[in-house]
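Entry for the shared binder. Reason: the reviewer on the internal report wants the predicted structure included alongside the sequence.
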Amino acid sequence: MDSSSANRLYTTHEVARLLGVTPITVIRWIESGRFKCYTTVGGHRRVDHAELLKFAQAYNLPWREDEEVAERKEFIVLEVDDEPDMLDMVHDILLSLPLVKMIGVTNAFSAGAKLVEEHPDLILLDVLMPELDGFEFARFVRQDPRFRTIPIVAVTGLKNETDKARMMRSGMSEVLFKPFRPQDLIGMIERFRLLKKHAKGAGHDQEDSREVA
């Protein structure tokens, strides 16, 4: 996690907005010891980002940003690759697509922070990376209820069936083999954008049917 996220402090009203509850509920949680808070010199409560994130995960609480994510028009792609040249190449390719934003990071630890900050619509994931590899990161994503439905595409040179089976077991959705043609990547992005659009439309249909009922 990067320093900007790790050091962020929220007011009780911000916590309430993020978790979809009232400020009074947040104060009760704090007073009952559900999570820690800091008190400023002026007597105001502040909650640390990491502490709040841990609490939300423990109680499977959705963040309000999920609603903003559902309504945004931009399609956000998070690419995780320890080769800067690969990040640059993908960025150049995606420039040709309107309303597509690419966020590139060189390691899985930074990718974890970007998941929370940006809630991407698609993850392009290198498999062989130092420290925390793609297999481990994919399992991490699938274990978090906030991110488990985000498609993960393995972008890798590993082509044997054993490696591919391991990718699928780790939670990756499909594989884009290196080297790939620009049109292969563009076609894949467009397909996932279309799936998101259809899923959003289906969600609205379900809400309408509940209202009628």
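Summary line for the report: Confidence is low (pLDDT under 50) at residues 1-6, 206-213.
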